[in-house]
Specification:
This protein has a single domain, classed as Rossmann fold, CATH 3.40.50. Helix content is about 35%, strand content about 15%. It is built from seven helices and seven strands, in the order βαβαβαβααβαββα. Helix 1 packs across helix 4. The chain is elongated. The two termini are about 20 Å apart. The relative contact order is 0.16. The protein binds zinc ion. Zinc ion binds next to loops.
């Protein structure tokens, strides 16, 4: 079993990075970043790339790299879950999908005014991203995962 599945998604895998974060995985991604920087930042991570040249370079440097063939995020996620124990290690609702930062629990009162009123009224559990301030609530977050990835990965013991 993997200790910790930490990913680095190349420039063409933005959507995949977001989905991995929603599932709770540490997935770095930068829209605007050079090849050398990608290779540098991938150290200690699993590099997922759609670029065959970059893939070969990464292997030459002794990095863990995997070539992702599909340009559709669903197939990409499926490919990643075939390679790694994604279902077993998923921790949905623990990481910010926007900036990859671990979420913090907050008291309900603290998010008053930061979420729509009906959300505030109908939910009890909230989390916040300490870096970008995005507020998450369990209902919608879980719903999104179910709708988005229900057929791909089975992670709703949550
Ligand atoms: Zn964030």
């Amino acid at each position: 079993m993997e200790d910790e599945l930490k990913f680095f998604c190349d420039r063409m895998l933005g959507k995949l990075a977001k989905k991995l974060r929603i599932l709770g995985f540490d997935a770095e991604y930068y829209a605007d970043i050079g090849e050398d920087e990608i290779l540098e930042k991938s150290k200690g991570r699993i590099l997922l790339t759609r670029d065959k040249i970059l893939y070969r370079k990464a292997l030459k440097r002794g990095l863990r790299a995997f070539y992702i063939k599909s340009d559709k995020w669903r197939s990409q996620l499926k490919a990643v879950s075939n390679l790694f124990p994604i279902e077993e290690n998923a921790k949905p609702f623990t990481r910010c999908s926007v900036c990859n930062t671990p979420l913090k629990d907050v008291e309900k009162e603290e998010v008053r005014g930061k979420v729509p009123e009906y959300v505030y009224m109908t939910h009890e559990q909230f989390k916040i991203c300490p870096k970008c301030g995005k507020v998450y609530w369990k209902g919608s977050h879980m719903e999104l995962i179910r709708k988005d990835m229900g057929k791909l990965v089975k992670v709703w013991k949550v």
